[in-house]
Fold:
Amino acid sequence: MRLRDNESGQTLLEWLNGEEVVKQVLAKSFNGEPINDANLSIWRQGGFAEWLEDQDRVHRIEKLSELSLRLAKASGGNLSEGLLAIAAGKLQEALEAGCEVEIDEASGKEVISGVSVDKLTAAVAKIRGMELEAQKLKVKKVEVEQKGQALDLETRKFNHLRVKSFIDWMVDEKAKEIATSDMAADTKLEALGKHLFGDAW
Structure:
């Protein structure tokens, strides 16, 4: 934190060399030699620079994750759709930046800003495939909803016909006579079916 805040080298060295844990490490591994300007400079340009890059990468990923969640929420989609939108946008940015196509001497393949054109093409194809899959899922969802609505409508129609038929059968004297007879249930069902539906039964 102090190094990132550009604290002076002298102040950092005094602080580090005064820390008990640092003294123990120096005594154990470096013959008790204190950290000096050269050590600090090497760390600043090497390990610390890498650490800063890692922190920057983590920060960018966090920001992209937040953006993807907002995109997904705004579009009524899910997280993967938000991430897909970001990936497609980043690829478009790279292409719009006017990156020139070069030939990588080691592989002999075309590259744009160090990225293989084959890989970029594969990435675009994959993104397009994901978009098509997402569209297919949406269509299937609509189809399932429509089938559910059609089934519900058919059920209502069927129930309506049953009630209407029941009312019609209640005034049918022959049907009433069969229904209230002492016949066995199976025989009664058969007789009532033949009376009401004729040959169709």
Notes: The longest strand covers residues 101-103. Strands lie at 101-103, 110-112, 115-116.
